[in-house]
């Protein structure tokens, strides 16, 4: 199904906006601009048309003009009156820029100069015109066909007034002149929407933010293709229109991403499937502590979480990721922007993982992925629906990896002894001597009642003894404590999900937010 509509293309340099038409299909977004084309007759270039108008006793030249050099735009035809001289030629259109009047170049002339020339040009006026494809929106030119003859010029319709030339000029001829009409062999012209740019949506990305800032564009966004080609800034007349187009384009991009994932998964083993991938913005801390965002492409595949600067297109591209993390050792977290509750899973209650980022950042739909050695990545997406998909995808990818792996063992130490600590999906926690392999202690997941750590290497795990009901404290030191804590969290979360999947769904923060909206 194709979606079409009128929008504006905003030029940041000139700060002008131009009327365009958008055409959205499943795979391509096309930008169209209006132009005048020759549809029959001799093949004249439609770029420049020279037309002779015969001034009529009633109605004059039958057109109005706007613009001029004082406004940094050419003088353009802003109205054409029905059944009068300009319309009868069949060769003039609203939006035509006047280049010459009776051989005199007026491209740099002011509005008044052109009005004066046209009014004093005699009964036959020859004008050369060229259609202005990028007429600034402040001219408020109608996009449709010529308006009715009752639509007289008015000083209130635009910051630039229409000068009506449908009245008599300084004509010496009082007899009615023959009407201006197209000759049989004359070329015929039509105003049409022509394709000027096609942006493939496969792996494309959308940005609603002004470059290098956290400022959201008002009812506007840009679409960037995989090869970096940009639509420019698409501006919409209402917030509703902007939201509708944003949603429609995002849906088509997501559907194509899904197709790409299915294609990629045909070449991958069942244990190395792509669960989800897509564009996000990553917040980078600038040297002057300013917050900078950069596009990144994330993927959840097999046992790993990947961060790319550009999407992987071939199987060989997967090795050139900027970062690769084991899924068992990352922690996904949605940020408290509007959410009242903040527990991803019951595991958060077992482990005191409450690392809050400063939230001076005003972007909505943010999440972070905490990784080993206390480091983290902070991301933002454009839509709440995307946030919900990332939340669910991380859960699914982590749960699958936990079940595939079954257990993970880490080297640790306590009081000079080198030990091994195993997190096992079926058995829970086991600690044994690395040399003798003797088991020192073992507890089920349900026996873990809490934990505390020094934020560096040391952790205290609090277990409840099933016989005595007393709390036993086990202290261990790890080289990468954060990775171990995330691993414990992942295994407990996967265990809860296997026992009570409904509970897991009930904890989805992003989906709760979407439904409440």
UniProtKB/TrEMBL annotation:
Where is region (Disordered) located?
Answer: 143-186
Which GO CC terms are listed, alphabetically? cytoskeleton; syntrophin complex
Entry keyword Cytoplasm: yes
Biased composition range(s): Low complexity: 143-160
**Where's it found, cell-wise?**
Cytoplasm, Cytoskeleton
Ranges of residues in domain PDZ: 50-133
Under the heading PROSITE patterns, the entry gives: PDZ
SMART domains, A to Z: PDZ
**Which one of the record's GO molecular function terms can you name?**
structural molecule activity
Q: What keywords are annotated for this sequence in UniProt?
A: Actin-binding, Cytoplasm, Cytoskeleton
- Which family is this protein grouped under? Belongs to the syntrophin family.
What name does this protein carry? SNTG2 protein
- Organism, scientific name: Origma solitaria
């Amino acid at each position: 199904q194709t979606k079409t509509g009128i929008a504006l293309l905003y030029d940041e340099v000139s700060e002008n906006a131009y009327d365009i038409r958008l055409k959205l299909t499943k795979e391509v977004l096309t930008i169209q601009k209006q132009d005048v084309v020759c549809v029959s007759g001799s093949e004249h270039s439609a770029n420049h048309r020279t037309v002779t108008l015969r001034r009529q006793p009633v109605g004059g030249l039958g057109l109005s003009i706007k613009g001029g050099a004082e406004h940094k735009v050419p003088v353009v035809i802003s109205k054409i009156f029905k059944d009068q001289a300009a319309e009868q030629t069949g060769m003039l259109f609203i939006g035509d820029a006047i280049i010459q009047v009776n051989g005199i170049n007026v491209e740099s002339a002011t509005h008044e100069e052109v009005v004066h020339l046209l009014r004093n040009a005699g009964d036959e006026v020859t004008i050369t015109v060229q259609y202005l494809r990028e007429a600034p929106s402040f001219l408020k030119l109608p996009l449709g066909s010529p308006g009715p003859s009752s639509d007289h010029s008015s000083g209130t319709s635009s910051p630039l007034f229409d000068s009506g030339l449908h009245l008599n000029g300084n004509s010496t001829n009082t007899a009615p002149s023959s009407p201006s009409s197209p000759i049989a062999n004359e070329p015929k012209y039509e105003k049409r929407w022509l394709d000027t740019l096609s942006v493939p949506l496969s792996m494309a990305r959308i940005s609603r933010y002004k470059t290098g800032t956290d400022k959201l564009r008002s009812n506007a966004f840009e679409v960037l293709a995989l090869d970096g080609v940009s639509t420019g800034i698409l501006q919409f007349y209402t917030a509703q229109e902007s939201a509708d187009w944003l949603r429609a384009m995002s849906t088509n991009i997501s559907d194509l991403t899904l197709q790409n994932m299915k294609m990629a998964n045909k070449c991958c083993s069942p244990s190395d499937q792509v669960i989800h991938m897509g564009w996000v913005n990553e917040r980078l801390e600038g040297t002057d502590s300013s917050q900078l965002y950069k596009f990144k492409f994330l993927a959840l595949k097999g046992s790993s979480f990947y961060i790319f600067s550009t999407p992987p297109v071939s199987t060989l591209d997967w090795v050139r990721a900027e970062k690769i993390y084991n899924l068992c050792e990352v922690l996904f977290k949605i940020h408290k922007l509007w959410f009242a509750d903040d527990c991803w899973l019951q595991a958060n209650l077992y482990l005191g993982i409450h690392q809050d980022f400063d939230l001076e950042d005003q972007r909505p739909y943010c999440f972070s992925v905490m990784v080993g050695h206390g480091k983290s990545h902070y991301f933002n997406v454009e839509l709440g629906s995307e946030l919900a998909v990332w939340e669910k995808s991380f859960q699914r990818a982590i749960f699958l990896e936990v079940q595939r792996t079954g257990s993970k063992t880490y080297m640790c130490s306590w009081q000079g002894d080198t030990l091994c600590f195993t997190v096992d999906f079926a058995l829970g926690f086991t600690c044994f001597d690395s040399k003798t392999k003797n088991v020192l202690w073992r507890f089920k997941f349900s026996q873990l009642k809490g934990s505390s750590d020094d934020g560096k290497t040391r952790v205290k795990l609090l277990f409840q003894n099933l016989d005595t009901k007393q709390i036993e404290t086990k202290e261990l030191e790890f080289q990468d404590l954060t990775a171990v804590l995330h691993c414990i969290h992942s295994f407990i979360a996967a265990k809860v999900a296997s026992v009570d999947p409904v509970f897991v769904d009930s904890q989805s923060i992003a989906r709760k937010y979407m439904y409440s909206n």
